[in-house]
Description:
With 195 residues, the protein is of the alpha/beta class. The chain is built from six helices and seven strands, in the order H-E-E-E-H-E-H-E-E-H-H-H-E. A three-stranded parallel beta sheet has the order 4-3-5, sandwiched between helices. A two-stranded antiparallel ribbon has the order 1-2. The radius of gyration is 16 Å and the shape is globular. Mean pLDDT is 77; it is low at 1-10 and 22-26.
Amino acid sequence: MTSAKCWRTAAVVCLLTLAAVAGTAATVDGHYTLKTVVIDAGHGGKDPGATNRWGLREKDITLAVSLRLRDYLREKTSLNLVMTRDGDTYPTLPERAQIANRYEPLESVFVSIHCNASTNSAANGAETYVYDNEASDAKAQRVAARENQGQDFSLSFILNDLRHRAMKPYTDALADKIQDNLVSSVKVVDRRVQR
């Protein structure tokens, strides 16, 4: 399967998983009811993200997937749908977090869409990342360093991050659902949920 086809298939799986979760107005232990989905199209503007050998840029794929996710959820749910970008712009990580932090943690989820890349042509599979203070392994730590390069994290960003940590059981459960559905639908190597 070509990279572009894999990305499209993965995008559909992500859409369907989020739609299923959103469609149930997810309630966990009576504490969490999903009302808002903040959709973050990774990279953008001056940051192309990964580029494949055919010149396809990650920022373009993530934007296309994010817009489809928004449109699909708009059609199927009554959720409040918020985009961190809906064009080829470059919001910084703190700006993206600031958008997400406007919404009540017990009623919202932040989903950032990215595409994997590797210099190893034999590498394959799918993985889902969940934000955490400590990386799950050295590879995840390298991914975080690359994604966060050149970003300045303010005290308000850190304090809002602490507020969202209360949501860890719910974000972990969503990440597990997305990863399970992605692997079973696309039939790729399970690279597991990473931190």
